[in-house]
Amino acid sequence: MQKNNNSVHNLDPEILTLTVGELDSNCYLVSCPETQETIIIDPGDDGSFISEKILELKLKPLCVVFTHGHFDHVLGSLELRLNFDLPIFLHKNDDFLIKNAQKSAIYWLKKHEVAPVPSEVSFINEGKILKFGDCQLEVIETPGHTPGSISLVSKGTNPIIFTGDTLFQNSVGRTDFKYSKPLELEKSLQKLFKYPKETICYPGHGEPTTIGAEL
Q: Average pLDDT, stretch 200-210?
């Protein structure tokens, strides 16, 4: 049966949430229901656990995407790259954070040893489209929490946004880091609030929410 071209890239993805690491970060396995091609968002830790889930579910991972460069969103990426030879994407303005992620994790988690984060990454900007099977995610820049924070908008029929640490259920990203910018965060929130109220938001920590619930 010939596929109707009008339906291509319009499927809603399947989403599996994995809570990983000591800071209970949300890692998302976002998959095309037809092809099982998968984008991994924010593998914050426990790379072996994430890898096992991918194999168990027979997913076909295409890439890793960081919503920002904090260590609790990136520490599982080395094992994923070693296991699946995946490209890694983030915004260039957070490159300095992933370069310091190992040192930051050792300090904040009080550990003597932490796996490094791969240094070979590719940069993505506003408007970049990530295709996986008949699904798409579009990158939007949502700085404030960090200079290079991004969110990922599903291009399916139902509105979905992966908001990283920009927007949470009943909360927003902290801006007390020296590189954070509260005014930029406010602009980013207003950008998100322009999406339909029924838009489901999948944050970097905690439970999903909707745009309407956070207005």
A: 98
Distances in whole angstroms, Cα of residue 175 to Cα of each of 9, 117, 146, 164, 183: 36, 24, 8, 14, 9
The CA distance from 27 to 204, in Å, is 8
C-alpha 155/C-alpha 161 separation (Å) is 10
24-58 pLDDT, tens per residue? Answer: 999 999 999 999 999 999 999 999 999 999 999 99
Q: DSSP state, 112?
A: S
User: Is residue 3, in this structure, part of any structural domain at all?
Assistant: no
| 128-149 average pLDDT score | 98
Please give the Cα distance from 180 to 159 (Å, whole number): 28
Residue in 86, 71, 78 with CA at minimum distance from that of residue 23: 71
Domain span holding position 52: 11-214
Domain CATH for 105:
3.60.15.10
Query: Residue 119: pLDDT band by 50, 70, 90 thresholds?
Result: confident
Count Cα atoms within 13 angstroms, Cβ side, for 214: 27
